[in-house]
């Protein structure tokens, strides 16, 4: 079967006024319209094409490059909204339909939405959704390790922070109080897996997790805290001379190291000083 929503390496078997017909090993056929042919294409040669479903649900091949493939998510511009739902541009001629029932929050034309694409068996068409709970794992498993770097798409703003799609497989959370700037829906970035939560859900950090990723001055501060029973009577307003005598580093270096450890939630800063978490 030539599955819509995926790339296929197909044999060109004949040419017609409408374009080339391509076939897979099982004899399934799909039309590549003439406006997508390239100069190197010829009968009995293979072509790499992407297949989607047209308005009648028939598979059609194209040499266009989609922004997402079957069972993945990507940020897409919302081109139009009508009484049936929203339509998103995704790199091929036919826009991706996101019915109202598949919208977690109403989509607005002219804005960007993170959309997951699946194949609807009933309509035999590719359909989009912004409701992700049935498509991505919300609990950590053996596929994730603490400190692991992952690719994320910011999918939604929440009361706590930002829900992110992780490696096209999981849903995780980046807390807003652990970022140095607002994140945008659709933004793609590298994040790091934090220690597992008691409920199994996935927390993420935009900063590297684990002492192996701490810069040298922060590592020195961390070691000093550990050898001093987890406490130092210092803070960002401490006298530079006191900081140098205690740690052997400048106040500027100290503040940078302290900020890094605080963002990674390795220390707490209280009125009496720094406490190891």
Write up this protein.
The chain is mainly beta. The protein has 4 domains: 56 residues, Beta Barrel (OB fold (Dihydrolipoamide Acetyltransferase, E2P)); 58 residues, OB fold (Dihydrolipoamide Acetyltransferase, E2P) (Beta Barrel), CATH 2.40.50; 57 residues, OB fold (Dihydrolipoamide Acetyltransferase, E2P) (Beta Barrel), CATH 2.40.50.140; 66 residues, Arc Repressor Mutant, subunit A. The protein has 3 helices and 18 strands. The strands form 4 sheets. Strands 3-2-1-4-5 form a 5-stranded antiparallel β-sheet, with no helix packed on it. The protein has a 5-stranded antiparallel β-sheet with strand order 8-7-6-9-10, with no helix packed on it. A 5-stranded mixed barrel has the order 11-12-13-15-14. Strand 2 and strand 3 form a beta hairpin. Helix 1 packs across helix 3. The longest helix has 13 residues. The termini are far apart. The mean pLDDT is 91.
In a few lines, what is going on in this structure?
12% of the residues lie in helices and 38% in strands. The chain is mostly beta strands and 277 residues long.
Helix percent band: 10-25%
Question: Do you know the CATH topology of the largest domain?
Answer: Arc Repressor Mutant, subunit A
| Radius of gyration, in angstroms, nearest whole number | 26 Å
Estimate the mean pLDDT confidence: 91
Total helix count? 3
Structural category = mainly beta
CATH superfamily membership of the largest domain: Winged helix-like DNA-binding domain superfamily/Winged helix DNA-binding domain
Number of strands: 18
Quaternary arrangement of the chains shown? single chain
Instruction: Note the run of SSEs as H and E.
Output: EEEEEEEEEEEEEEEHEHHEE
Instruction: Look at the structure and give the CATH class of the largest domain.
Output: Mainly Alpha
The residue ranges in which pLDDT falls below 50 over 5 or more consecutive positions are none
Strands of the widest sheet, in order across it, are 3-2-1-4-5
Shape: elongated
> What amount of the residues lies in strands?
35-45%
**Terminal CA distance:** 55 Å
Major beta sheet, specifics?
5 strands, antiparallel
How many domains? The number is 4
């Amino acid at each position: 079967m030539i599955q819509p929503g995926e790339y296929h390496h197909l044999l060109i078997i004949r040419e017609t006024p409408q374009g080339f017909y391509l076939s897979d090993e099982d004899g399934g056929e799909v039309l590549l319209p003439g406006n997508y042919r390239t100069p190197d294409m010829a009968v009995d040669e293979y072509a790499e094409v992407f297949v989607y479903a047209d308005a009648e649900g028939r598979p059609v091949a194209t040499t266009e490059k989609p922004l997402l493939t079957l069972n993945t998510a990507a940020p897409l511009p919302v081109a139009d909204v009508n009484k049936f739902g929203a339509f998103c541009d995704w790199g091929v001629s036919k826009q991706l339909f996101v019915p109202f029932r598949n919208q977690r929050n109403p989509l607005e034309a002219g804005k960007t939405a993170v959309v997951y694409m699946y194949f609807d068996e009933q309509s035999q068409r590719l359909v989009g959704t912004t409701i992700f709970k049935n498509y991505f794992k919300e609990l950590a498993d053996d596929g994730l390790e603490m400190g692991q770097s992952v690719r994320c798409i910011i999918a939604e703003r929440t009361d706590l922070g930002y829900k992110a799609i992780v490696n096209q497989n999981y849903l995780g959370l980046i807390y807003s109080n652990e970022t140095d700037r607002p994140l945008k829906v659709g933004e793609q970035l590298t994040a790091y897996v934090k220690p597992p939560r008691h409920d199994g859900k996935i927390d993420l950090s935009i900063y590297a997790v684990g002492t192996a990723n701490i810069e040298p001055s922060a590592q020195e501060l961390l070691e000093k805290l550990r050898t001093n029973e987890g406490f130092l009577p210092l803070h960002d307003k401490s006298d530079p001379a006191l900081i140098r005598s205690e740690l052997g580093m400048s106040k500027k270096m100290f503040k940078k190291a302290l900020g890094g450890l605080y963002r990674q939630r390795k220390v707490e800063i209280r009125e009496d000083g720094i406490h190891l978490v």
